[in-house]
Write a structure and sequence with these properties.
By secondary structure, the chain is of the alpha+beta class. Helices cover 48% and strands 12% of the residues. The two termini are 73 Å apart. It catalyses: hydrogenselenide + ATP + H2O = selenophosphate + AMP + phosphate + 2 H(+).
C-alpha cells in the first residue's frame, strides 16, 4: 500500500530540521560547511538528492528505492527493481551511474529449494539491468524477512551541467510522458485470472488473452530503462522532469509543480494507457482511479517539461528505433501544457485516453511491421496504409525548415502546396505537423487556407501535437481581415479535440458579436460543434440567449445557422422553442434563404401550433408557393408541414396531396437516381391514403432497362398498388417481361408482384405463373412456387389450378425456400396431386444429404399430412423418415419435431388429423376489397424522413409470410361470466381449457344458453359464402327436405359509431369469438355492409352454419328535428335450424357491436 505523498513529506520534514538545528558543535560546523558549498542543492521531496561536494564543483546525486515483488518472473522482477532505482537518476537528466548497491530481503516462508532457485534469478536480473545502464553492482545488504523485498541505491558524482534541476518549467512549455500508464491495473488483472469473484467484475470489458498481453506489456515497460529519455532531455533543452511511480501521474505532477521557480500550473489533457486498462479500471469502480491520475505505477516513464517547439521532435526521436525507442509502447506522448498558475497540477474533466497497444498484439505488430511506407509518428493512431516514400517527406521537411524558403513568400506557399498535394495523393505527411504549424504565421491567406486544411486533416492522428497550434489560431481570431478570422474560428472548432475546448470558447463568444457576417456564421456553428463534442457539458444560458437574439440577424445564413445550432445545443430540452413572433419571422424570411435553409426552417416550424384557424390559413397561404416548388426537397418539406398543421383537417390534407402530385411525378423523372428512389418511396406513402392518386400515370412507373435493381423493385411495388380493371392487362404484361430480367432478385420480385395482383385477378396471374414454370429457370421456378403457395393461402379456390402446375417442377428447384414451398403445397393439397407421394419419396431418400433444417422440418410435416390423406402410399416412406430423424438426425429441432409427430400418431388418426389438417388458408388476409385506405395521420410523421426508404413496401403490401404458413393450435375458451367489455386490443379473461384442434378454437360464449360454442372452422371461401347465401335467400324457411330447412332472423341494432370505425378493429373483435368477417366496404362508403359467418354447436345438439350481413344505409333523420339515428340492420341465415343457437349468436353479436361502438366514441 502506497503512503500518501502529503503524509510522507510530513514524516520526512524532520530530517532537514535536524541538520539545521543540531545541538553539537561539530554538527553545527559540518552543517554550516555543507550549506556554504557552491552549486545546486536538492533535498527531501524529489526523486534524488543533490549534494555539493568539497571537490571542485562536483555534486553527489543519490537515490534509493525498494518494493515487494509484482510479477511472477523473478528475473524480470530483478530488472524492474533496478530500472526503478535508476529511473530517479534519469529524471535528473543523468545518463551515467557510478555505482549501485542492492537491497534484498529473503522470505522466511520460502524453503531452501525455492530460495536457491528464485533469489539467483532476481539478483541476475538486477545485475543485467545495471550493466545495461552502464554501471555495476558493487555490494548491498541482505536480510531475512517475512516478505521478499528488493531494491537498491544508485549514486553518481558529476558536474552541475550533467544534470537538470527539476525547477525550470515556464508557461508555454509542453508536458511529455515517456511510458504508458496502467501497469498496476494490468498486474492486478493478471492476478485475477485465478480469482473468479474478481474476474467476473472485468470479464465483460476484456478477454483473458488481452489481459495476458497487457500484463506482458506492463512487465516489459517496467523493465525498460529511461536512459534514452534522459539523454534526449539535454538534447531538447528540458526544463524539468520527474519519474511517475507510486504516487501516480497526478501525484508526481503536483510534486513537480511545487518545485518550480515560476508560478506555473500543469494541465494534463491526454492519458496514454495500456490498451483496455482504462475500461478495466472503470469496471472496478474506485479501486484504481487510473483516469483520475492517482493509480500507482512502478518504474514508470518520465514526465518532462519541454519547450513547445522541441516537444514534437523529442517524441519523434523517442519513437525512432535508432534512438532506442521500443515501438508504439516505447515512444513518448504530449499529454499537457504548462500555464500560469498556483504551482499545482490538474487533469481536465474528460481527458483523451490514448490506447497503447501491447507489444506483440495485432495492432502493435501492424504498426511495427516493416512496410514500404512509414507509419504516422502519432502514438496509437489507427492509420490506413499510405502510398508514398520517406524521402519525399524528408525533402518537404527540409524545404519547410529552410530559412531561404521561408523568406520567399511564393516559394514558401508552393512548398506548402506540395505538402497538400502529397497528402491528397495518399502520402503520409503527418510528420510535418510541427513545420506546418509554423507556416500558419503568414499574412498570405491562401497559405493559411492550405495549412488549415492540413491541420484539420491530421489533428485526430496527432492529438498531442495539436496543442501546438492553439496559440496561432487564437491570434488569427483577432486578425483585422474577417476572412482570416472566420477561417481561424472554423478550423479551431474543426479540430474536434476535447482537450482544446477551453481554448475555443472565448474566440467563439467574440465571434458571435463580430461585425462580419461570415465570422458570425462560423461562430454560430462552432458552438454547435463544441456542444456535439461534449454533449453532457452544462449549457451556457448566456450563449443560448445570444443565439436566440441572432435569429433576427440581417444575414439569412446566420439565422438558419442559429436554428441548427440551437437544435443541437437544446436537443435534450426538445430543440428550439418556437412562438408566434419567431414563427412569423421565419415564414416572412423564408424566400431569402437557400434551399437548405428553407428545408431547415420548414422542418422546425412543425413544432408551432397556430392559435386560431385564421392564423392557420394565413400560414398555409404563405406556404402555397413552396408546395409546388421546382425543388423537390423544398416541396417535400412544405408538404410535411402542411400535413402536420392540418392533421385535424383531412380535406385540406387530401387537397395538399393532390397538389403535390405533379412535383412528385417530376421528381420520379429526375437525373439523380437517389432522388428518383426517394420520390418513389414517398409516393408509396401517399398511395396508402389515396390509392387512385397516381392511377392515370401508371406508365410513369414502368421500369427502364438501365435502371438499377433496387429502383425496378420499388417501381413494381408501386405498379401493384395502381392495378385496376382498366390497366390490369397492361401492367401484368409489363411485369411478365421483368420476370426474365438478368438480375435474379429483380426477376423474383416481378414474380412476387404478379402473385400480389393475383389476389384480385387470379385467373390471369395463374396463367402467367404457369407459363413461367415452363422456362425451367431455377430462380424463376423457386419464386413461382413460393408465390403460388402464398396465393393459395390467401385464395384457396385456386388450389386446383396450382396443383396441376406443380407436376415436374421439383426437378428445377434447388434453393431451400422454393423446396419448402413445394413441400407445403404437397402436404396441404397432396390429394389433388397424383404424384405427390413419389415426389416426397425423392426428398425422403435424399434427407441424409439435405443441408437445410427448414426443408427437413417441412418434409416431416408434409409427409405426416399426406399420410393422413393417402396412408397406403405413404406408410413405408413416413416410417423411414421418422426412423432417420429420431435415431440419426443431429439437429435437435428436427429430432424433437419427429418425436412429436411419432407420439401424436400414437394418439390416433383423428387426434393427428385435428392438429395437422387445420385450415388451409387465412381468410383474414384476403379481404375482397383489398387493403383499405389509411388516414393520412397514420404515416404523416414519417413523410420527408428516411423511414420510407428503410421500409420494404412489398412486406407491407403482403402480410402473408414468406415462410410456409403453419396451423398453430389454439386453446378453447369458455366461461360462465360475461366480461365487462369486449375490446379488439384485449382478449377477454375467460377460463381456458386445453383442446387439441388444428383449426381455430371453439369458443363457448358467456351467459347465453348452455354449452353454446362458436368456431370459424371449416373455412368458407367467398364463392362458397355467396352460393350458400343466395340459395338460402331463395328457399322458404319451412322447406320440405331437412337439408333445405333454415332459419332467418332480421333485427336492428342501435350502434352509433360502428359504421365509422376501422373495419380492422371490428374484425379483430369478432375474431376473438371466432366470428369470421369475409368482406366489408371501406369506411365512409354508403351503403355500409359487412359479411360474416361462424359455426355454432350446443350441448346435445348438432353443428349449424350461420351466415350474416350487417347493413347501414346511412343516417336517418327523426321526426321533429331530433338527432339522427344510426341503426345497423342485422340479417342472419342459419342451416340447419336451431332457434336457441341462433338467438344466442345474435346476443353475442349485439354485445360485440355495442362494445366496439362505445370504444369508438
Amino acid at each position: 500500500m502506497t503512503v500518501a505523498i502529503e503524509v510522507l513529506l510530513k514524516l520526512l520534514s524532520g530530517l532537514e530540521a535536524d541538520q539545521a538545528d543540531g545541538t553539537g558543535k561539530a554538527g553545527d560546523e559540518a552543517s554550516d560547511f555543507v550549506q556554504q558549498l557552491p552549486g545546486p542543492r536538492l533535498g527531501v521531496g524529489m526523486d534524488s538528492c543533490v549534494i555539493p561536494l568539497r571537490h571542485g564543483g562536483l555534486s553527489l546525486v543519490q537515490t534509493t528505492d525498494f518494493f515487494y515483488p509484482l510479477v511472477e518472473d523473478p528475473y524480470m522482477m530483478g530488472r524492474i527493481a533496478c530500472a526503478n532505482v535508476l529511473s530517479d537518476l534519469y529524471a535528473m537528466g543523468i545518463t551515467e551511474c557510478d555505482n549501485m548497491l542492492m537491497l534484498l530481503s529473503l522470505s522466511q516462508k520460502m524453503n531452501e529449494k525455492d530460495r536457491e532457485r528464485v533469489m539467483p534469478l532476481m539478483i541476475r536480473g538486477f545485475r543485467d539491468a545495471a550493466e545495461e545502464g552502464g554501471t555495476s553492482v558493487t555490494g548491498g545488504q541482505t536480510v531475512i524477512n517475512p516478505w521478499i523485498i528488493i531494491g537498491g541505491v544508485a549514486s553518481v558524482v558529476c558536474q552541475p551541467n550533467e544534470f537538470i534541476m527539476p525547477d525550470g518549467a515556464v508557461p508555454g512549455d509542453v508536458l511529455v510522458l515517456t511510458k504508458p500508464l496502467g501497469t498496476q491495473v494490468a498486474v492486478n488483472a493478471h492476478q485475477w485470472l485465478d480469482q473468479p469473484e474478481r474476474w467476473n467484475k472485468i470479464k465483460l470489458v476484456i478477454t483473458k488473452e488481452e489481459v495476458k498481453e497487457a500484463y506482458q506489456e506492463a512487465m516489459f515497460s517496467m523493465a525498460t530503462l529511461n536512459r534514452t529519455a534522459a539523454a534526449l532531455m539535454h538534447k531538447y533543452q528540458a526544463h524539468a522532469a520527474t519519474d511517475v511511480t507510486g504516487f501516480g501521474l497526478l501525484g508526481h505532477a503536483n510534486n513537480l509543480a511545487k518545485q518550480q521557480c515560476s508560478e506555473v500550473a500543469f494541465v494534463i489533457h491526454n492519458l496514454p494507457i495500456i490498451a483496455k486498462m482504462a475500461a478495466v479500471s472503470k469496471a472496478c469502480g474506485n479501486l484504481f482511479n487510473l483516469v483520475q491520475g492517482t493509480s500507482s505505477e512502478t518504474s514508470g516513464g518520465l514526465l518532462v517539461s519541454l519547450p513547445r517547439e522541441q516537444a514534437a521532435k523529442f517524441c519523434a526521436e523517442m519513437k525512432s528505433p535508432n534512438a532506442g525507442g521500443q515501438g508504439p509502447a516505447g515512444g513518448a506522448w504530449i499529454i499537457g501544457i504548462v500555464e500560469k498558475g498556483d504551482r499545482r497540477a490538474r487533469i481536465i474533466d474528460k481527458p483523451r485516453i490514448i490506447e497503447v497497444p501491447p507489444r506483440g498484439s495485432q495492432v502493435a505488430n501492424q504498426e511495427n511491421s516493416p512496410a514500404p511506407t512509414p507509419a504516422a509518428p502519432g502514438p496509437c493512431a489507427d492509420i490506413m496504409p499510405y502510398l508514398g516514400n520517406e524521402e519525399a517527406v524528408r525533402e518537404l521537411r527540409r524545404a519547410l525548415s529552410n530559412p531561404n524558403v521561408q523568406s520567399d513568400q511564393l516559394r514558401y506557399r508552393n512548398t506548402v502546396l506540395k505538402v497538400i498535394r502529397a497528402m491528397s495523393q495518399g502520402v503520409d505527411v503527418s510528420g510535418l505537423f510541427s513545420e506546418m504549424v509554423k507556416a500558419c504565421a503568414s499574412v498570405d491567406i491562401v497559405q493559411k487556407k492550405l495549412v488549415y486544411v492540413f491541420l484539420c486533416s491530421y489533428a485526430t492522428l496527432n492529438p498531442e501535437l495539436s496543442l501546438l497550434v492553439i496559440n496561432t489560431l487564437r491570434k488569427d481570431c483577432q486578425d483585422p481581415n474577417p476572412m482570416v478570422r472566420s477561417l481561424a474560428l472554423r478550423n479551431m472548432s474543426n479540430l474536434r479535440l476535447p482537450s482544446l475546448v477551453e481554448y475555443v470558447e472565448k474566440p467563439l463568444t467574440a465571434g458571435l458579436r463580430d461585425r462580419a457576417a461570415c465570422v458570425r456564421r462560423v461562430a454560430v456553428l462552432g458552438w454547435a460543434k463544441l456542444h456535439n463534442l461534449q454533449p453532457n457539458s452544462e449549457i451556457d444560458a448566456a450563449v443560448v440567449n445570444e443565439l436566440y437574439s441572432l435569429l433576427r440577424d440581417p444575414d439569412p445564413v446566420v439565422m438558419v445557422n442559429c436554428l441548427r445550432a440551437l437544435e443541437e445545443i437544446l436537443k435534450e430540452e426538445g430543440g428550439v422553442a418556437i412562438n408566434k413572433p419567431i414563427a412569423h419571422h421565419l415564414l416572412n424570411r423564408l424566400k431569402e434563404t437557400d434551399v437548405w435553409g428553407q428545408c431547415e426552417v420548414l422542418r422546425i416550424l412543425q413544432r408551432y401550433r397556430p392559435q386560431s384557424e385564421d392564423e392557420l390559413f394565413d400560414i398555409l397561404s404563405l406556404l402555397d408557393a413552396s408546395l409546388v416548388s421546382h425543388q423537390p426537397t423544398v416541396m417535400a418539406a412544405t408538404l410535411s408541414l402542411f400535413l402536420h398543421l392540418c392533421s385535424g383537417l383531412p380535406p385540406v390534407c387530401l387537397a395538399a396531396l393532390e397538389r403535390a402530385r405533379g412535383p412528385l411525378l417530376a421528381a420520379c423523372g429526375s437525373v439523380s437516381r437517389e432522388l428518383r428512389f426517394t420520390a418513389l418511396c414517398h409516393i408509396q406513402l401517399l398511395l396508402r391514403s389515396l390509392p387512385g392518386l397516381m392511377g392515370a400515370h401508371y406508365k410513369r412507373f414502368f421500369c427502364g432497362y438501365a435502371e438499377p435493381a433496387y429502383m425496378k423493385q420499388r417501381k413494381m411495388q408501386v405498379l401493384v398498388e395502381l392495378v385496376n380493371d382498366d390497366n390490369v392487362g397492361l401492367i401484368l404484361d409489363e411485369l411478365k417481361g421483368y420476370c426474365t430480367d438478368v438480375n435474379t432478385e429483380t426477376a423474383q420480385a416481378a414474380v412476387s408482384a404478379i402473385g400480389r395482383v393475383g389476389r384480385s385477378y387470379s385467373d390471369r396471374c395463374l396463367e402467367i405463373l404457369t407459363g413461367l414454370l415452363a422456362l425451367k429457370q431455377e430462380h424463376i421456378t423457386s419464386a413461382v412456387v413460393q408465390t403460388m403457395r402464398d396465393l393459395v393461402w390467401v385464395c384457396p379456390q385456386n388450389s386446383h389450378t396450382v396443383c396441376l402446375a406443380l407436376e415436374g417442377c421439383e426437378e428445377t428447384l434447388q434453393d431451400s425456400q422454393g423446396r419448402q414451398a413445394l413441400l407445403w403445397l404437397l402436404g396441404m393439397y397432396g390429394e389433388q396431386v397424383a404424384g405427390a407421394p413419389y415426389t416426397l419419396e425423392v426428398f425422403i431418400d435424399g434427407v441424409r444429404s439435405e443441408a437445410s433444417v427448414g426443408v427437413k422440418m417441412e418434409l416431416l410435416t408434409s409427409a405426416c399430412r399426406l399420410f393422413l390423406c393417402r396412408p397406403a402410399e405413404m406408410q413405408d416412406m413416413l416410417g423411414r423418415l421418422l426412423h432417420y430423424c429420431i435415431e440419426e438426425e443431429t439437429d435437435m429441432c428436427v429430432h424433437d419435431q419427429a418425436r412429436l409427430y411419432y407420439r401424436l400418431l400414437h394418439c390416433g388418426i383423428e387426434e393427428t388429423r385435428k392438429i395437422l389438417l387445420g385450415r388451409r388458408s387465412d381468410p383474414s388476409l384476403g379481404v375482397l376489397i383489398g387493403r383499405p385506405a389509411e388516414p393520412v395521420s397514420q404515416w404523416a410523421p414519417y413523410f420527408n424522413t428516411l423511414e420510407p426508404l428503410r421500409q420494404d413496401g412489398a412486406a407491407e403490401a403482403e402480410p402473408a409470410s414468406r415462410e410456409s404458413p403453419r396451423c398453430v393450435p389454439c386453446e378453447a375458451k369458455n366461461s360462465r361470466d360475461l366480461p365487462e367489455s369486449l375490446s379488439s386490443h384485449m382478449e377477454p379473461d375467460w377460463r381456458k381449457e386445453p383442446q387439441c384442434s388444428g383449426g381455430p378454437a371453439a369458443v363457448q360464449p358467456p351467459g347465453v344458453g348452455t354449452g353454446l360454442s362458436l368456431s370459424s372452422s371449416p373455412t368458407l371461401t367467398p364463392e362458397e359464402f355467396e352460393r350458400t347465401w343466395l340459395r338460402l335467400q331463395r328457399l322458404p324457411p319451412d322447406a320440405g327436405r331437412r337439408e333445405e330447412q333454415h332459419l332467418c332472423l332480421e333485427e336492428l341494432i342501435r350502434s352509433a359509431v360502428v359504421p365509422l370505425c376501422s373495419p380492422h378493429n371490428l374484425q379483430a373483435a369478432l375474431q376473438l369469438l371466432n366470428i369470421q368477417m369475409l368482406a366489408f366496404t371501406p369506411p365512409h362508403t354508403l351503403p355500409w355492409r359487412v359479411y360474416l359467418y361462424t359455426h355454432t354447436q350446443r350441448a346435445h345438439a348438432g353443428h349449424t352454419l350461420v351466415l350474416g350481413e350487417l347493413l347501414w344505409p346511412g343516417e336517418t333523420q327523426k321526426e321533429g328535428g331530433a338527432e339522427p339515428e344510426e341503426e345497423v340492420r342485422v340479417t342472419l341465415r342459419q342451416q340447419p335450424p336451431d332457434d336457441e343457437a341462433l338467438k344466442g349468436f345474435f346476443s353475442i353479436l349485439t354485445t360485440v357491436l355495442q362494445t366496439v361502438s362505445s370504444q369508438g366514441e
